[in-house]
Amino acid sequence: MAEKFELNEVEVWDGNYATSQALRQAQVDVVAAYPITPSTPIVENYGSYVANGFVDGEFVMVESEHAAMSGCIGAAAAGGRVATATSSQGFALMVETLYQASGMRLPIVLTVVNRALASPLNVRGDHSDMYLGRDSGWIQLDAFNSQEAYDLPLCAFKIGEDMSVRLPVMVHQDGFTTSHKAQNVYPLDNDVAYNFVGDYVPVDEMLDFTRPVTHGAQTEEDWHYEHKAKQHKALMDSRPVIDRVLAEFKELTGREYKRVETYMMEDAQIALVILGSSVETAILAAKQLREEEGLKVGIIAPRCIRPFPYDLIRDAIDNSSNLKAICCMDKSAPGGAMGMLFNEVSSAAYTTNTRPLISNYIYGLGGRDFAIDEAKRIMKEQKAHADAGHITTNIQQFSGLRGPKLGFYETRRS
Amino acid sequence: MVEIRWHSRAGQGAVTGAKGLGSVVATTGKQVQAYALYGSAKRGAAMNAYNRIDDNPITNHETKMYPDFVFVIDPALAFTDDITKNDKPETKYIITTHLSKDELIAKIPALQDKVERTFVVDCMQISLDTIGRTMPNTPVLGAFMKVSKLYELDFFLDNMKKVLSKFPQKIIDANMAAITRAYNEVK
Amino acid sequence: MSLQGNDNRGIRELGAEKKVGWDEVTQGVALNSFVGESENSAFLKAEERNYNDFNSYTATVASWRIIKPVYNRDICIDCQNCWIWCPDTSIISRDKQMLGIDYDHCKGCGVCVEVCPTNPKSLLMFSEAKDNNEALAGWPVKEKKVKN
């Protein structure tokens, strides 16, 4: 029986510590990990909980992130509740095994502390690693602050382990901005948190010797396609389960999360679509602009990146009858395309009645500060688009970048 | 909103100090942020840590701030860092130095017009005398209590003891002595 | 050879199984080997286990074979070399006594013949069409070592 870890009603935790406490309270059976900045403290803390008897789990130190996720897959197939953490290059090395985990329908929780991908080498945060995972078949949730870095992993276990889902779940937080920023966090009582997550119920576990089972079988074109289609359906169908678990979490804690968070969208004329810790800064900027200039700015923040909430994005646009212009803010080098948010939001918006103008900003790469003044400048630029009735700049631009103005693609729509 | 910027070297405990301050403040119902920018910096490299304190939840994640207080907890950084960056007319400076206030200001042009807002305390000597090694992070908080009048010294000491409760009693006592001395000696 | 009446070894051609749609495939490609629970399967002989259609035991690949090994009990010394080396577990052996070939899973690779140490060999390759008794009747005799 594990030792009791005493908690205060209010703790001052950074995102990493908050996440490690959630893993402890969920009583994870196995953490196989290869630590990497900035997510190191998550698994370091979990290791100390194991060593000090606060959790009856196993910590497996492996030789790479590829081995870390492989170990997690083995432990999950064996029938345990499994989690780990990674960032950046480690995440990239893990990618091959991420597809295995989702294809094998193992509800592993991977807490990702978002960090830029080299080259150039950089430990600071952007969303390159988060975007790299978006076709891997995992559910991806995004925490905007330390409190959410504690709350969302608890929800992630419950979502992934739901019998109709059985898929792995990533919980993202921003490197340093969230992971290393201590803020007020209101943890749940240990028993309350565990009871919310619930006992782990294994499926087709290898340690059930009454039903010997093969995992990781090979198929060719005769079976592969059907299995991938079934997997995709499970991912798409996880949406109501995510909604239900988040609703149950609100019931328990009063803290409300949705697959798409919307702020001040009711009367918004322009909107920013944005992820991560920048959401909170953008809300602050929008409030200031509303006060200072009466500019009606709203914020749309996808909490759930996969399955992408096309449904709720469309609702958010359709329910904002004054909405004229949207700016999608992508914190990842786009690699010869528009940013991910621009592409996803555009496809959701195409079937709306109003079809607002949509433009794209790349920002914050490698941890470049996202400043309130810059957010306001971008918002005012959207107002200019709205007034002109067409996009007055290049469709894709770069925010906070030194050197001559950089942009691509001009609008042909007037 | 009260905003604090720490100027420190990696290893001098600025992050721990900022988190400790945050933990004490949070017990009084206020909202806090404590964060740092260090990344892959090595021990001894110049770095900044930051605090924000407010009555309402803090949603600003911009790193840059216009600080109400600047803590310089390494004596040399007062000369080599841009400690008056983003200065406001009311920004107060608490600087670790063995020099007198007049001697220090005479050497730092940027502080010449900020005499009334500059405070000095020798956190290095205080921590050497009390804790036994140079650990300027807790004494500067004692000086901060005096300068800011945020909390009574006794209230702060009691809450700081709880924050440090995982340490041996000897360490806790030494830190309490360091905070108290800095509170009394800051000028 | 079939070892008991209800043995379901090789009861279907490999690949002849029903190609079900995405809605009927197993979750996560997890493939159970047995029908229902099978607590003590580790202690049962293959022919006693209740293998299901996800296990290759119930499938036959006999049609893949062009040449086949024939086993001669009269010469075999039960050394188990063929049992160890066979890549398709198609040598049937019980209590270290060689019984014969599993012709449902043998692909005719000839490894068993290569590793057989007896003189003459206790396993030899013949055309798939050749009758086993006929093959045994014409078995070669012991080769004498030729001195130089």
Attribute tags:
A: 414 residues, alpha/beta, Rossmann fold, 2 domains, seven-stranded mixed β-sheet, five-stranded mixed β-sheet, 13 helices, 17 strands, globular, B: 187 residues, Pyruvate-ferredoxin Oxidoreductase, domain 3, six-stranded mixed β-sheet, 7 helices
Descriptive notes:
By secondary structure, chain A is of the alpha/beta class. Helix content of chain A is 39%, strand content 17%. Chain A folds into two domains: 11-253, Rossmann fold (3-Layer(aba) Sandwich), CATH 3.40.50.970; 260-408, Rossmann fold (3-Layer(aba) Sandwich). Chain A contains 13 helices and 17 strands. The longest helix of chain A has 17 residues, at 372-388. The mean pLDDT of chain A is 96. Chain B has a six-stranded mixed sheet. In chain B, helix 1 (14-26) crosses helix 6 and helix 5 crosses helix 7 (169-185). The model of chain B has no long low-confidence stretch (mean pLDDT 95). By secondary structure, chain C is α+β, with helices and mostly antiparallel strands. Chains A and B meet through strand 8 and helix 10 of A and helix 1 and strand 2 of B.
Task: Provide the fold topology.
The complex is a heterotrimer of chains A (414), B (187) and C (148).
Chain A: E1 11-13, H1 15-25, E2 30-33, H2 40-51, E3 58-61, H3 65-78, E4 83-86, H4 88-103, E5 109-114, H5 128-132, E6 139-142, H6 146-160, E7 169-174, E8 182-185, H7 190-197, E9 213-214, H8 224-236, H9 238-253, E10 260-263, E11 270-273, H10 278-293, E12 297-302, E13 304-306, H11 310-318, E14 325-330, H12 340-349, E15 357-362, H13 372-388, E16 396-398, E17 407-408
Parallel strand pairs in A: 2-3, 4-5, 5-7, 6-7, 11-12, 11-14, 14-15, 15-16
Antiparallel strand pairs in A: 1-8, 6-13, 10-12, 16-17
Helix pairs in contact in A: 1-2, 1-6, 3-4, 6-7, 6-9, 10-13, 11-12
Chain B: E1 2-9, H1 14-26, E2 31-37, E3 46-54, E4 69-72, H2 77-80, E5 92-96, H3 101-107, E6 118-121, H4 123-130, H5 137-148, H6 153-163, H7 169-185
Parallel strand pairs in B: 1-4, 4-5, 5-6
Antiparallel strand pairs in B: 1-3, 2-3
Helix pairs in contact in B: 1-6, 4-7, 5-7, 6-7
Chain C: E1 12-13, E2 31-32, E3 59-60, E4 67-71, H1 81-85, E5 91-94, E6 97-101, H2 111-115, E7 123-127, H3 132-137
Parallel strand pairs in C: 1-3
Antiparallel strand pairs in C: 4-7, 5-6
